Amino acid sequence: MLKIIIPTIMLIPTTTMCKPTQLWYTTLIHSMLISLLSLQLFYPSLQPIMNFSNHNMAADQTSTPLIILSCWLTPLMILASQNHLSTEPLSRKRTFIITTIILQMLLIMTFSTTDLMMFFVLFEATLIPTLMMITRWGNQMERLNAGTYFLFYTLMGSLPLLVALLSLYSNTNSLSILTMQLSPTMLKNTWTNSMWLLAALTAFMIKMPLYGLHLWLPKAHVEAPIAGSMILAAILLKLGGYGIIRIMSTTNFLSKTPYYPFMILALWGIIMTSLICLRQTDLKSLIAYSSVSHMGLVTAATLTQTEWAYTGAITLMIAHGLTSSLLFCLANTNYERIHSRTLLLTQNMQLLLPLMGTWWLLASLTNMALPPTINLMGELTIITSLFNWSNTTIIITGLGTLITAIYTLHMFSSTQWGELPQHIKIMAPSHTREHLIMTLHILPMTLLMMKPELIWGPLYC
Amino acid sequence: MNPHANMIIMSSLILGPMITITSNHWIMAWVGLEINMLAIIPLIAKQHHPRAIEASIKYFLTQAAASSLLLFSIINNVWNTGQFDITQSTNTMSSTMMTAALTMKLGLAPFHYWLPETLQGTTTMMTLILTTWQKLAPLTLLMMINQSLNTSLLVTLSLLSMMIGGWGGLNQTQLRKIMAFSSIAHLGWMTMILTLSTKLTLLTFYTYITLTTTMLLTIKLLETNKMSTAMTSWTKSPMLNAMMMLNLMSLAGLPPLTGFMPKWLILQELTKNHMTIIATTSAILSLLSLFFYIRIAYYSTITLPPNMTNYSQQWRHKNQQKPYLPLMIITSSMLTPIMPTFMMIM
């Protein structure tokens, strides 16, 4: 693990010291090399053991795909932000790149730590760079509001988690994921333990976000710069799912009733947020609500606590991470040309940017989970495991899939087809850099279709 | 000020708390507090501005009232127990009165009203002395009598301080007043843990001193007294301005910055003593303070105002770079990873 973290840390002096003309591609190539280096984590994670790198850090099948995804996202963020930052002075460009690098470092440590307390501290630590990214480099004035929402929603949920973890620690004297798995603390079905579980889960539910606690997410996505949207959709939401899986698998809870409210909200949220997507006028907001809808599936799956469900959750998290990041990049290419996120003002883009149209098609198809994408693999596994949990969920999940297809088609058709708006007088052609970003998103998705067991999590041993 | 007078005042300012801290006898402790109070009054009033005079009067009245209450409770204690030993103040009534007197000296809610007013009336450097050095003697006395203090009373007082520190600061635009409310909230954390672990009180106090000193020195260097001047402070020292945000987040206690360390340990101690509800409440109350800290950060660091500066040529002033400030900023933001070392030496 250190051979990923130390180069990441050394990227910070590289960024501050390298020549202004070489800034972008030096950091890009360096971070790309780090992400290639991280791929070797896949090898030991194919065995059913934790791959220890030192006393405090380990990676297993659940965390390895997420670590590699966060390493993969950093070069993409650097690549995607180049146009957005082109008017900024040099020192602010450097600061921005350093923020993304610190975020990557914190995320790698969050996913690889073996101690729940350490996990909590790092989980919170990712807030500060993300907040800086949203509030400092966003475009509109509403970004301050969005930043406050983001910070306070997350902290309001996670401070009870801190107390819950501390009280667990005073009972068991250890918060290590490994020892807790070996000697599971059986929580009796008492009122206190239900409150404990509620406190422990709410933080992750807000981060996911669960329907009802999701209001911060569309705001944050709409106001964030492209890199902020990408990291938020691709990794930060997955911190919630990862946290639930960790808490669930380390503490065996006897009763299932405390999960019911979360389950109902998650399943109901799939339908509701998909329906909200249908009436969105704002492209980025649409993609954000689509994230909420997909994360509803992941939440529901992790709450059933079966092996299949965990597999489906991890697969969908990775698939959705790449897909939604890709969609945000595509939305950003339009935004940088039209300077508007409104769907009505970006019609018939395939006439102007034909190759982008291809990427839009591919992204839409993966978002609606067409076979043989890994999105379908994840959704199908989740739907199956939910069906196993209760037969009637098939109505909701089936309907959810249907509406997902409808709103994705709506998004695709309203951006790519239709009448070309009159206000578009001049349009910059698409850039090779932009095509490279899209390719680097599509490529891992395509490759994972051929070897999906890499992201199957605990099922594949 | 006359250099001789200045020297006498400054040395008594230092001497007063020293006498209090080292004394074992209640009268000596009280004498130390009085020396300290008498020394700081002329310092607050040094500016010869009506507001400074008002601040010094307010400070004098509250401190004198607190001192006389303290003296009364000392005598009451002596009447009942027959000795002047500070650590043996076992009489319930006098220890309760001592709590009231010392919290009044500290500026803890509900005896906090003088603190924001006094701090707003004086200079930034006096604010620094009032929020750090002046807390030392009363806090030490509280720690010395912690055996006979009433836990539920102190917990109530500290929860009240956290609430008032948070809610009071929301309404302010003057940075010194905000720092006063931040001080009230932090003192709430210190007294919360006072009866359970005095070591943690000390740790919280040290962290609080570090963070507040860094913040106030930054404010002094950037000459920002209110939100509107904070907006243009980036022209003076962009790097320091950027670091101010980290420092503010640390004051708010966001992990993994230094400010999180004492809060974490206090919450742990509280949950260990089965005070989970109180721990959760105080953790959530710290979000109130976070709101106004983040508002300062929004004004100073995050946004660039459309107008460059309030008056022309602001960036032409050569501001003196302080060599100790980078060190202080690092201390006040990155100390959490070495927490195990603290645990060992304390």
UniProtKB/TrEMBL annotation, chain A:
Span of domain NADH:ubiquinone oxidoreductase chain 4 N-terminal: 1-110
Signal peptide: none
Domain of life of the organism encoding this protein: Eukaryota
Membrane topology classification: Multi-pass membrane protein
Keyword check for Chloroplast: no
E.C. designation(s): 7.1.1.2
MF-aspect GO terms: NADH dehydrogenase (ubiquinone) activity; NADH dehydrogenase activity; ubiquinone binding
Positions of the NADH:quinone oxidoreductase/Mrp antiporter transmembrane domain: 114-404
Main location: mitochondrion
Enzyme kind, highest EC tier: translocase
TM ranges: 23-43, 150-170, 195-217, 224-247, 259-278, 285-303, 309-330, 351-369, 389-409
A Pfam family of this chain: Proton_antipo_M
GO CC, one annotated term: respiratory chain complex I
Subcellular location(s) of the protein: Mitochondrion membrane
Record carries keyword Cytoplasm: no
GO BP annotations, alphabetical order: electron transport coupled proton transport; mitochondrial electron transport, NADH to ubiquinone; mitochondrial respiratory chain complex I assembly
Record keywords, A-Z: Electron transport, Membrane, Mitochondrion, NAD, Respiratory chain, Translocase, Transmembrane, Transmembrane helix, Transport, Ubiquinone
Reactions accelerated catalytically: a ubiquinone + NADH + 5 H(+)(in) = a ubiquinol + NAD(+) + 4 H(+)(out)
Family: Belongs to the complex I subunit 4 family.
Role noted for this protein: Core subunit of the mitochondrial membrane respiratory chain NADH dehydrogenase (Complex I) which catalyzes electron transfer from NADH through the respiratory chain, using ubiquinone as an electron acceptor. Essential for the catalytic activity and assembly of complex I.
NCBIfam families attached to this UniProt entry: NDH_I_M (TIGR01972)
Protein name: NADH-ubiquinone oxidoreductase chain 4
Source organism (scientific name): Pelodiscus sinensis (Chinese softshell turtle)
UniProtKB/TrEMBL annotation, chain B:
Membrane topology: Multi-pass membrane protein
Any one Gene Ontology BP term: mitochondrial electron transport, NADH to ubiquinone
Documented EC number(s): 7.1.1.2
GO cellular component, one term: respiratory chain complex I
One Pfam family this sequence matches: Proton_antipo_M
Location within or outside the cell: Mitochondrion inner membrane
Family as reported in the entry's similarity comment: Belongs to the complex I subunit 2 family.
Annotated protein name in UniProt: NADH-ubiquinone oxidoreductase chain 2
Organism in which the protein naturally occurs: Pelodiscus sinensis
Biological classification of the source: Eukaryota, Metazoa, Chordata, Craniata, Vertebrata
